[in-house]
Design goal:
With about 550 residues, the protein is α+β, with helices and mostly antiparallel strands. About 30% of the residues lie in helices and about 25% in strands. Strands 21, 24, 25, 26, 27, 28, 29 and 30 form an eight-stranded mixed β-sheet that branches. It has a six-stranded mixed β-sheet with strand order 16-15-17-20-19-18, with helices on both faces. A hairpin with a 2-residue loop joins strand 19 and strand 20. Keywords: Kinase, Magnesium, Transferase.
């Protein structure tokens, strides 16, 4: 890759290294400079620009990020479309992140241009959480360096999510004189909160005297009753492997794997097994909802991750949990504190009268055997969107019937004749009270838009990094759909008439990210019978592949 400062006239086709702002016009870092760009820079008085040009064998940052992310991606993870050399890995279920740490370190040591950052191993994550990110540092990497990275990643995926699995759990508590029944009841409630936060059912509640024989009988009864895991909270803390709890477990046919752990609170935890069933002697701190070492063990077991004596002894780094009020709790309905991907909804505008099509409703016109609006909605449903809202107006019942039982929310705009602004406002009103970070505004008459193109816009969207408006482009020309950050919902909702929100793009150039697309689908809508016929001919020649 060639890095150089060039006169503006010699920079055509090169990538801009540093962003340039000129009044309302803003050119972002990484922009491929076109002849029109060079003229605009010259008119603004810019004489030189710092740029990069690729050399033979270089792999562009997005393609390199995609290949690395795909290679490390394992079970219950998905790869987000790359943007600016970054490709995120997103959790698809509740579970624990499993990381092959030695191979992760080897990957990050291959070349400074390629980096992979993850959440800590065994972090509890929820669907939609970002668990890792591949970042390519320069605009491209040498192909040879990329091949060395991929060779390092050969074999099993480096990352996966071990899904939480509900199972039958029995909680046995022992009694001693002076231990209030209310304390035992509270312990049951707190334990059930823990289990609920891990997707489990309430524990079966059993109680007995703090006596070896009585506890052995309860353990036998729990296992005979179908318990897949037995948790024992003693009225008195375990002090030795020969104490009541470990002695009862041994008497019930079990083996004690390990007593104690380098985690505080939680030091006095005991790990045992009877056959293949885990049996845990609980530290006294489980009577509190605060995070303790037992939580780390319980989370792994609920995700079918074996916990060994060596695993427990390796928990000391980061194991000081005492007096740290900011530590996350292991509950809150399986929600984690991992960074999450932005929540993006789609508004599909399907309310217009399509007056330029004559008497026909263009959204009902068929392409490849289904109406145009069905193509647009199906693309939205196949993309990484949290909700899809379809705004109807003209012939709303026909649109609803066409979409059938697809997983969309319908909003009717009775004022559709006033123009597109009222339909946009109706769609935004439906999202007003939801935790949506951005909205993708799709036109119902753009049937060539593909899910991968929508995902590329979603991956580019990052208001924190200044990408609050994501606009698709093809050969430098801007198109649709556009993804808008939540900060623009209110001004968009107050638009009037048949005017879209394009002026907001012009007024907020520093927040705009142009996202290059592989074809002209983002420029192709259907406004006239002639346009529809031309599209039919084109689709017939291409075979209608809309996957990219």
């Amino acid at each position: 890759m060639i890095f150089a400062s060039l006169p503006v006239g010699e920079a055509e086709g090169a990538l801009l290294v540093h962003s340039i702002k000129m009044g309302k016009m803003a050119f972002r870092k990484g922009r491929k400079l076109s002849p029109d760009d060079l003229r605009a820079l010259t008119a603004a008085g810019v004489e030189r620009v710092t740029v990069v040009r690729f050399e033979p064998g270089d792999v562009a940052e997005d393609e390199a990020a995609r290949k690395i992310a795909t290679a490390v991606c394992g079970e219950n993870l998905e790869v987000a479309a790359p943007f600016t050399g970054r490709s995120n890995l997103i959790a698809k279920c509740h579970g624990l992140l499993v990381v092959d740490r030695p191979r992760l370190d080897r990957l990050n040591a291959v070349d400074e241009a390629v980096t992979l950052a993850t959440l800590p191993a065994f972090d509890l994550v929820a669907p939609g959480d970002m668990v890792a990110t591949v970042k390519i540092i320069p605009f491209a990497v040498p192909g040879e360096a990329l091949e060395r990275c991929l060779w390092t990643l050969a074999g099993e995926p480096l990352l996966r999510i071990a899904a939480l699995r509900p199972r039958a759990v029995t909680l046995i508590q022992t009694r001693l004189p002076g231990l209030k029944e209310s304390v035992i009841d509270k312990t049951v409630a707190i334990m059930n909160e823990r289990l609920s936060g891990l997707g489990g059912e309430p524990a079966r509640d059993r109680r007995c005297p703090h006596d070896e024989a009585a506890l052995t009988a309860e353990i036998d009864a729990a296992l005979e009753g179908g318990a897949e895991m037995v948790l024992i909270a003693g009225a008195s803390a375990i002090t030795d492997r020969r104490d009541v709890l470990p002695a009862a477990i041994t008497r019930a046919g079990g083996r004690v794997d390990h007593f104690g752990m380098p985690v505080d609170p939680g030091n006095l935890m005991l790990l045992a097994h009877i056959g293949d069933k885990p049996v845990l002697g609980l530290p006294g701190c489980v009577r509190s909802p605060k995070l303790n070492g037992f939580d780390w063990v319980l989370q792994r077991l609920m995700a079918d991750l074996p916990v060994t004596r060596q695993d427990i002894m390796a928990m000391g780094a980061g194991g000081l949990l005492k007096e740290i009020p900011t530590r996350p709790q292991p509950r809150a309905s399986s929600e984690s504190l991992a960074p999450r991907a932005p929540k993006v909804a789609a508004i599909v505008l399907a309310a217009g009268r399509s007056s330029r099509m004559g008497s026909a409703n263009k959204l009902m016109a068929e392409l490849e055997g289904k109406p145009l609006v069905d193509h647009a909605v199906d693309a939205a449903l196949a993309a990484r969107l949290d909700r899809v809202v379809v705004v109807t107006g003209h012939e709303s019942e026909r649109v609803r019937q066409s979409l059938g039982n697809r997983r969309v929310e319908f909003v009717h705009n009775p004022d559709y004749a006033s123009g597109i602004a009222s339909s946009l406002a109706a769609g935004l009103a439906a999202l007003k009270d939801s935790a949506i970070d951005g909205v993708l505004v799709l036109l119902g008459d753009m049937p060539r838009i593909a899910p991968a193109q929508l995902d590329r816009l979603i991956s580019a969207f990052n208001p924190v990094e200044g990408r609050a408006i994501c606009v698709p482009t093809f050969n430098g020309k801007r198109g649709n759909p556009v993804l808008w950050g939540r900060r623009f919902f209110e001004p968009m909702a107050h638009l009037k008439g048949d005017v879209g929100a394009r002026h907001l793009i012009a007024e907020n150039g520093e927040l705009v990210a142009e996202v290059a697309m592989p074809d002209d689908a983002v420029l192709t809508d259907v406004d006239t019978p002639q346009a529809l016929e031309a599209l039919r001919r084109q689709e017939g020649k291409s075979g209608g592949d809309r996957s990219a």
